[in-house]
Amino acid sequence: MAAVAARTRAAVRGIGRTPPPPGPFRPGFWRSPIRGPWLTSVFGLVLLIGIPLLFITGLLSYASYNPGLSPLNDETPDKGVLGFYLFSWPTHPYWLYRLLQGVHVTLGVVLVPVVLAKLWSVIPKLFEWPPVRSAAHALERLSLLMLVGGVVFEFVTGILNVQLYYVFPGSFYRLHFYGAWVFIAAFVVHVCLRLGRMGRALRSRGLRAELRTGLAGTVPEPPDPDGLVAAAPAPPTMSRRGAVGMVGAGSLLLLVVTAGQSVGGRLRGTALLAPHNRDPLSGPNGFQVNKTAAAVGVTPALVGPDWRLEVHGSGAPLVFTREQLLSMPQHTAALPIACVEGWSTDDQHWSGLRLADLAALGGLPDAGSVLVESIQPPGPFTRVMLRGNQIRDPRALLALRVNGSALSLDHGYPARVIVPANPGVNNTKWVHRLTFRA
Length: 438
Fold this sequence. Notes:
The protein is an alpha+beta fold.
């Protein structure tokens, strides 16, 4: 081991004695007069607040699928210790998932200009020469590469998924979940290594004074040990005030054109970048649909007069027509639909049978779970498991009608599940079998 370490040190010294290659490795290549520790730290401070919030809301979003309940709910198998925090997802308040996923997606989109600005501000660090000077420097470099790669991967995959253009191989849930843990590990290491320097850089200049400084008064920061300040700065074409303002304006614009898909109301019309920004139709069923019946292979023939609902429990299976279900006592609930892409509907008025009543009919009034199966062709989330607390919530329904009318085919006719605080993909449409388990 000692010989290997000696050879490594010799190799590093050898690289350090060679001149840097042409291009971005040369100190004079980066010439922006506003790049430096202070501006980098301003963007870093925003991310220091935003990234942990983004990570926590993402973890809670994953927990909302109740992945520990059944492999059917888990798109990230073999998560091991990374699932240490999972818990039974509550049904109160009913808007919990809508809030969490709305914040997660909206914040992720809003932080894009800050992330790009931060990457621009530290890009000379990616081309340091020599690339490795010591073991500590190697750790810092590795954390930086993992950080940059992780943030690019997470933001790109997340935004593509939001826009329904996900093109990466494999499950989005799995890749995004594991990518998030790799990224946050690198983020924590980087913060531990840089927090002290960031604090000193922020104290070196007053924010108010810097925001009052225009282009004429913009001068480079003093040389720094990290090499962010240009060795031969060019004349300024933008002040630091302009850079901060441009990034802030970009984030504000993205907030305006994205948040409405989660907030709803009049703001829904401003969500120009959201694929579900406006109601697609008018009338009782005129609210957002993630996937249409045609898109998943559900035809009118599958839900015609021969459709039946099967209820399995402790005894013989029970079979009901839709007319028989409608003849039973009906209950109502005002609940939204909220999806992983960050969009949600306003509260819709659903009516149908309580899942608790159906569990009692099946002979298991204290059922611990229910397997919900859709008539659509097999695929992800065509079968899901719901917990006992979700069954017993009086607002958890097998919905037959919405807003006073029968469900449309795209909204799950002849019957669908609707549960408070449940991810939209777990509110199964076109239900044909419920299997209650003790």
